[in-house]
Amino acid sequence: MRAVSVHRDALVVTSRMWQTTATAIRSGGEAVLIDSPYFPDELEALAPLLAQAGFEPDGLLASHGDFDHLLGRLAFPDLALGVGEPTALRLRAEPGAAQRELRDEDDEHYVSRPAPLSLGAVQALPVPGRVDLGEVELELHPAEGHTADGLAVFARGLGLLVAGDYLSDVELPMISPGGSLADYRATLARLAPLVEEADTVVPGHGSPHDRATALRILDEDVDYLDALERGEERPPLPDGRDGKAQQRLHSENLRQIA
Ligand SMILES: [Zn+2]
Q1: From ligand 1's centre to the CA of 251, what distance in Å?
Q2: Quick one: what percent of the chain has pLDDT higher than 90?
Q3: How far is the CA of 70 from the centre of ligand 1 (A)?
Q4: CA of 230 to the centre of ligand 1 (A)
Q5: What is the whole-number distance in angstroms between the Cα of residue 165 and the centre of ligand 1?
Q6: What 3 state SS string does the chain have?
Q7: How many angstroms does the Cα of residue 20 sit away from the middle of ligand 1?
Q8: CA of 59 to the centre of ligand 1 (A)
């Protein structure tokens, strides 16, 4: 797990698993943690790491309902988990699904955990909407397409966009069950003006980018979605996202939109 300071008031922690990011933002003595790392040792190290850096969170947020973004409560079992209303609906409609998927993934990688995942009383937030954090406002923007739910957090005052599973430098656009190509396109179109106003963009998986890099990835993603929509079996994939796993992901995408 590595921690990178992307702003005086924002710290990004990146998991060894899928380069999953967790972003801590602070203002006026308050802090929030968006998404989570994966491995038990990373989750155990998270509270002391954030406390030492001055980012002790008062609340948790998840960008969407995929299990790999919901693990914050394993590090902070006393904090409430905030999610967008569509994510709250999804979690309610599929009770135990996140826990099951986590167990399956753990099983796959021989990972054992000290405690099972409990989401507690999930707090549903309107999207679009706003959350106050100390002296700044966090804007919640809808971000569907990867899944049926999803939000992006724009901390305008910090020039920071936390995009959820979009604009990744390590993963192609992924159309999961519940997601859709049309919604994915709409989300990229919605994120574009926010990226233009951001100094830093944090994807759900991969490295924090500067604006120019995020805009380049956004263009690559639009091109990729065009190729996907045309049903191309072997489209040229963007640099760094053209390995075997991403080719498999592309095949999954083709099946998903068929
Ligand atoms: Zn993810």
Answers
A1: 18
A2: 100
A3: 10
A4: 25
A5: 5
A6: CEEEEEECCEEEEECCCCCEEEEEEEECCEEEEECCCCCHHHHHHHHHHHHHHCCCCCEEECCCCCHHHCCHHHHCCCCCEEEEHHHHHHHHHCCCHHHHHHHHHHHHCCCCCCCCCCCCCCEEECCCEEEEECCEEEEEEECCCCCCCCEEEEEHHHCEEEEECCCCCCCCCCCCCCCCHHHHHHHHHHHHHHHHHCCEEEECECCCEEHHHHHHHHHHHHHHHHHHHCCCCCCCCCCCCCCHHHHHHHHHHHHHHC
A7: 7
A8: 20
pLDDT tens-place string over residues 198-246: 999 999 999 999 999 999 999 999 999 999 999 999 999 999 999 999 9
pLDDT at 18: 97
Band (pLDDT 50/70/90 cuts) for residue 149 is very high
CA of 34 to the centre of ligand 1 (A): 12
